Amino acid sequence: MTQLPPGTLSVGADYDNVARRFRPIFACIAESAVACDQLRTLPREQIAELKQAGFGALRVPVSHGGAGVSIKQLFRLLIELGTADSNLPQALRGHFAFVEDVVNAPASPERDRWFKRFVEGDLFGNAWTEAGDVALGSIKTQVSRRDGRWVLNGEKYYSTGSIFADWIDVYAQRAEDGSDVIAAVATQQPGVTLSDDWDGFGQRTTGSGTTVFNNAEVEHTHIVDFSRRFKYQTAFYQLFHLATLAGIARAAELDAAAEVRARKRIYSHGNAPHVSQDVQIQQVVGEIAAWAYATEAIALRATEPAQRAYEAHFADDAEAEKRFNIEAEIESAKGQIVATELALRACTHLFDALGASAIGGGKALDRHWRNARAVSSHNPVIYKSKLVGDWSINQKEPVYLWQIGAGPANK
Question: What is the secondary structure of 348-362 as a DSSP string?
Fold first, then answer.
């Protein structure tokens, strides 16, 4: 087993001490969440505050100036952030995935340069998915060599977080040989056009629109073979959905309790002179609280195999690393099967504790359900159930890279 100096791996920090830095920012974010949703205002200032406070360097090892938090601690913080505004964990999803890849990379001057950028506040967005008639398994976005430089050309949709970012993590192919690569592309250049054209009814302000690359320049050291990407990446991406759902459920609980405390009107056939003392209403809020608790517990439990896979990777234990990578996929899938139902139930049940005034647009209480439904729709739960069932029955190893595109019957 390789012995590394203390602080060179991100295995955990004093959680309360780390969280204390960000909780005032979370509180301000919560205050603006309703207005951002109603006006569809992108949270540029909110993300800038998180960036300045070092949120993007949470997984960077202490030896390189980061917080050195574990994966579980990262997602605890993301649940707190998601409780304030569920759009922000999703907007930062691409950033933390790229950071995780660098955290898993072997020591090198290039890795040190990325760590320095993260600590200084650089953020990543994401551009992997291509919409339209792109065939399943195909990628039209290509990186090629022209006039002695590398350039990127193509168009991506669901470019989550890219509109806020300094860099974009792009899934592409090398034009010369068709090999899959990841390209880190700087956003501040003429060859990158970012559009805020995401029109989903939920998660409206994640910056998940279209990105067009027109001879966008890429440094050759910023192009890496996709095959060396960290192995638990798909599970890691799915943990963001779990954390977001947990944050939404917790927000629904907080709003339900606050609305009940403030409500003055009662029904003639109710059970108490004030709605906060009505045992049936207490039951409703109690059930929402329990579902939020369970969703968070599931989300945090699902992070544990990924942390074990990360540590096994640096312990040079290939057998353990593979086992934990599989567990990371299976547990994140199991978690979403249950957490999706619990979060959606909590967001719907919220209205059973309140009167007709709760459906007023000014309160925007419907945003919790809309956001949970949007998050739950990105990667269909039915296929997660199939994946888990195939593993339970047949020990069929899960697929580590998901793709979407036009099927052969639609050609």
Answer: HHGGGGS-GGGG-TT
